Amino acid sequence: MSSVPVAVVTGSNKGIGLAIVRALCKQFPGDVYLTSRDPGSGQAAVAQLQQEGLRPLYHQLDIDDVQSIRALRDFLKEKYGGLNVLVNNAGIAFKVHDTTPFAVQAEVTLKTNFFGTRNVCTELLPLMKPYGRVVNVSSMVSSSALRGCSQELQQKFRSDTITEDELVQLMAKFVEDTKKSVHEKEGWPNTAYGVSKIGVTVLSRIQARLLNEQRKGDHILLNACCPGWVRTDMAGPKATKSPDEGAETPVYLALLPSSADAPHGQFVSDKTVRPW
Length: 276
Ligand code: NAP
Fold this sequence. Notes:
Layout: E1 6-9, H1 15-27, E2 31-36, H2 39-51, E3 57-60, H3 66-80, E4 83-88, H4 102-124, E5 128-137, H5 140-147, H6 151-158, H7 164-179, H8 192-214, E6 221-226, H9 243-246, H10 248-254, E7 267-269, E8 272-274
Parallel strand pairs: 1-2, 1-4, 2-3, 4-5, 5-6, 6-7
Antiparallel strand pairs: 7-8
Bound molecules: NADP nicotinamide-adenine-dinucleotide phosphate (NAP).
């Protein structure tokens, strides 16, 4: 078993994820895994970084596929005996003018952004080694979507006692409410992406609380963040930040020094803790 530290970035064949791998290859003292659902685009991204003189490693990972997540889990357990840095970056967004029915957009978006990210956490968080760092890439849109929720929902999503099961039920309820076209009446905002990212931010707050309760002595720090508005296939060419600039806050959180005890359980953008 290798004692080399290991970092994994989900959805890192392009965009912000690829830039996070690039930065970690330069700054993280260990093995850095670029992962992708499609091995071809993942290997092409590895080749691109090799051209830049970097040495990322590769593993397949489709966060929508529990078997794929478990294969990575077993590989990490066997080869490294755990994991030091996990960046949950993989995500999807329908374009604003996409005509796919809203209920379908809600189901598909929540499936990857919330349920897929949660499944990765369920399988990989138990592997986190002491002083591990977990970064869940959310979005500022989670904050604006939160403000668009009914007072009752806002209270639930800001609660310091909400459980993971309760959050999962709320995310599933949103999808069901869109199918019945009652989501607005039920207090939800009209954004599937926004609700999925509320889920990612609240999940991060819950997971940080559980780490405090169950693994206090392990000094693991877990946060949600927004990378900013970044020029990628998702956000388009008009966005203000380059992918490398978008990677800065996630990488800052992934490399918090072992002496740090904060931020933890926070929502962070531009390396600054934001109110939730
Ligand atoms: P992107 O260029 O579209 O990249 C998204 C990445 O996620 C791709 O590698 C994609 O793989 C991967 N992915 C999607 N579904 C996956 C799955 N089921 N399993 C594994 N990988 C999957 O988007 P981006 O802008 O870099 O976004 C990265 C993250 O930042 C997302 O979570 C996004 O919501 C968040 N974010 C972005 C912005 C922005 O302005 N760009 C702002 C706030 C937050 P494929 O190539 O196979 O599709």
